[in-house]
Amino acid sequence: KVYRLDAFLKRYKDFRCNPRISSDTIIALLILGIASRIKSFYQLERMGMNGELAKAIRGEKPSADTIAYWMVNGNAEELKDCNARIINKARYNKVFQKGTIRRWTVCGIDGTETYSTKTPCEGALGWSIRRYPGRKDEYYEKAVALSYVGDGPHLLLGMERVRPGEGEFTAAIRLLKEAAKRNNSYSDIICADALYAAAPFINEVLEQHKHVVIKVKQEDRILVKDMDGLVANREPGVILHGVTPKGEKGKDGHGVNYNLKIWDEENFTSWDGVKSPLRCLKVEETRVTTCRGEITGETVTECHIVTTVPKAIMEADIVWQIMHRR
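The chain above was modelled as a monomer; its predicted structure follows.
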């Protein structure tokens, strides 16, 4: 009643000629399959033939080939518009009134795999190849997805194919432009992993008047070297014991907690091409696993996080939470 998905299903038209099974039936079946974690179209087909879907989906059930044919001839732009209306309605209804992480509305962007096949067709040209010794190569298509992270609902803002010959961050920039066009104020912060640590990506986020939080792994970066040199003989500015990425105190005696040491400096201008001074956090975290009161494992890792959020408006441990929950 709120998001009017039923009205959209009745209105939506694909590009098939004289279809026997309507789009709303197929979309409803796919939503049911995703919610039920059905593994394949063929399993959905068998469930329809066996009568398992009789109460959920009325009328004739589509075959696996019919679902695939519908997807090939689907109206992707209309589906994207529907998704954008859901995002806008959620924001208008103040679903994210308290943000998703400590009153900040945070989106994460990352790469994923959508389709794979061991029998490539013409449409699979340019796909990535995964080679297995003694077995057939697997061809898979890569995409970049943007969604809310932190407190739910984890709505998906969009996906973009990684085109042949380009990198993930190029597709990510295209996705950010598309997201801004459909929902201008969709987020406060974009967080990403080290793959997106490039000036064009950071500048695109800045041009949308948003902040960025990126994990940096390249130890040879001048900014990382500057940070390490600056804090080499200093005590960490933040020391926390027994915390979790959700910002709460961990359970005593059971589960996973973190001990943190964070060095935090800002106003770095040594990242060539970035249009804004950057803040850098050096984080040493100890992951402590306990079971029935006994420590069963401790793992110490060190990383650097770069962000455009100033110290004055965000504490260092919140930056760490955002990166962890991505």
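Residues 76-92 form the longest helix (17 residues).
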